[in-house]
């Protein structure tokens, strides 16, 4: 295959964006004109998933192109430290300018080298340690009662929306500064925004767009903890505590107004970046990629936040546009965060032979086989043991090391509402998918390895009792700028 001509790459990353909450994904209420136009001008991947449905390990995988079991970053405490090569390192070594602006959620220790030529306005895990209580899985400890999720749902500004405004402005300035700059090698600019991550406080113009609308209730909504849910889902719902504070449909709609408002605010920032790219005259020489670190349950099944293997949480938006990308195309093959690494390399013309990513990483600029399988893992709050997800375009299998599996027919049940794993006729299919997982890794060995690492970190931070009695950082990482 003839290599594509090298081009610049603008990589836009959001935080906690449910892939269903975009107009181009068919959502009936959300207003995302800029993301919709980006999808119309390029290719949207409908079965994209994160490497882990929680921030820090997902971002480590996004940087390194490796699955968690290959990488060893399991939770929101054990953040990426730069020691595993990333696509940032490879590009910098090849002489490319590779710049980040905004949230990284890496370790943030002095001396860490993440491979960027420049990193502007970075947000790392709080205090270089994050929320250490998340290491305590069995028995768990209280991180918070989840009240801040609903309480934050209102019109206004938060530190995060102000931070996103600064990130966007800095990125616009960077793009305009590069309109006159010439180089024999394309650049990569990664702009990493926080919206629509909670707090669910959205600027008034965006919150008010939804607050007075009769928004649809989330699918399969259940107040409190649903006793019919899978045991892992019940564990997560209890330990996150979010849904216990929702008492009425008005509460649910207020939270949705906040989340949808933040998605539209994100969309406006994406629009500003695309406008700056055009004003700088860079469109013909730049590809654009949009994704998120993970999704958000947004009330589906009575769940809020991330951490589950349902599509709302483990799925991510994935859009690729620009020169040599088919416009108006919808790709159904399963893709994931680990594919971003080789996509970046191919986009800017670095030979894939220089890739240090997983052997499963494939450039999204190349043709994809329809039978591709994506993998996600989860090893932290709400889980007693590891959770693994495998999916292709037709089937999703969720393996719990200590609980019964889950199986969904995505063709007949795209909303993932009917777990088929206990049906006698599906036992052979469940076993087939388990064997597919075991061909990639030993889930029980991975589970034990993650727990050993977490125990080492528990000891490092003073031991179990010291962590249980200490105060956490709250529900989200503080913004690095006022």
UniProtKB/TrEMBL annotation:
Sequence ranges assigned to domain Sulfatase N-terminal in this UniProt record: 7-350
Claim: Lipid metabolism is one of the keywords in the record: no
Keywords (A to Z) from UniProt: Hydrolase, Metal-binding
Matching InterPro entries: Alkaline_phosphatase_core_sf, Sulfatase_N
Hydrolase found in the keyword field: yes
Database matches in CDD domains: sulfatase_like (cd16037)
Official protein name in the record: Sulfatase-like hydrolase/transferase
């Amino acid at each position: 295959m003839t290599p594509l001509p090298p081009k610049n790459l603008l990589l836009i990353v959001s935080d906690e964006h449910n892939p269903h909450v975009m107009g181009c994904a068919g959502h009936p209420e959300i207003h995302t004109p800029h993301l919709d136009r980006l999808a119309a001008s390029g290719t949207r991947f409908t079965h994209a998933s994160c490497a882990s449905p929680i921030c820090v390990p997902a971002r480590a995988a996004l940087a390194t192109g490796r699955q968690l079991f290959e990488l060893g970053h399991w939770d929101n405490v054990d953040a990426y430290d730069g020691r595993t090569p990333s696509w940032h390192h490879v590009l910098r070594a090849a002489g490319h300018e590779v710049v980040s602006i905004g949230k990284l959620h890496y370790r943030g220790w002095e001396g860490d080298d993440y491979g960027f030529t420049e990193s502007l306005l970075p947000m790392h895990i709080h205090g270089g340690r994050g929320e250490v209580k998340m290491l305590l899985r069995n028995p768990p400890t209280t991180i918070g009662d989840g009240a801040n999720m609903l309480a934050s749902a209102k019109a206004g500004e938060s530190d995060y929306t102000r931070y996103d405004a600064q990130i966007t402005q800095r990125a616009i300035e960077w793009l305009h500064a590069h309109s006159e700059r010439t180089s024999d090698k394309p650049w990569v600019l990664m702009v990493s925004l926080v919206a629509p991550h909670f707090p669910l406080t959205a600027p008034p113009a965006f919150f008010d767009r939804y607050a007075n609308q009769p928004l649809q209730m989330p699918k399969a909504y259940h107040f409190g903890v649903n006793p019919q849910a899978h045991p892992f889902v019940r564990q997560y719902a209890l330990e996150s505590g979010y849904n216990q504070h929702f008492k009425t449909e008005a509460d649910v709609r207020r939270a949705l107004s906040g989340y949808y408002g933040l998605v539209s605010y994100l969309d406006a920032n994406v629009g500003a970046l695309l406008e700056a790219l055009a004003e700088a005259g860079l469109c013909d020489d730049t590809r654009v990629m949009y994704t998120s670190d993970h999704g958000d349950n947004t009330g589906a099944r009575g769940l809020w936040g991330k951490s589950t293997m349902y599509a709302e949480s483990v799925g991510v938006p994935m859009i690729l546009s620009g020169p040599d990308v088919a416009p108006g195309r919808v790709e159904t093959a399963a893709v994931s965060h680990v594919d971003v690494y080789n996509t970046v390399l191919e986009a800017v013309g670095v030979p894939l032979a220089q890739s240090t990513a997983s052997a499963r990483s494939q450039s999204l600029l190349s043709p994809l086989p329809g039978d591709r399988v994506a993998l996600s893992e989860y090893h932290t709050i709400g889980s007693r043991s590891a959770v693994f997800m495998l999916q292709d375009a037709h089937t999703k299998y969720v393996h719990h090391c200590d609980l019964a599996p889950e199986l969904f027919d995505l063709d007949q049940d795209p909303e993932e509402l009917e777990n088929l794993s206990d049906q006698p006729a599906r036992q052979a299919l469940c076993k087939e998918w388990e064997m597919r997982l075991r061909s990639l890794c030993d889930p029980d060995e991975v589970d034990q390895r993650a727990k050993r690492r977490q125990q080492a970190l528990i000891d490092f931070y003073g031991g179990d009792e010291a962590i249980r009695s200490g105060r956490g950082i709250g529900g989200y990482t503080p913004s690095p700028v006022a």
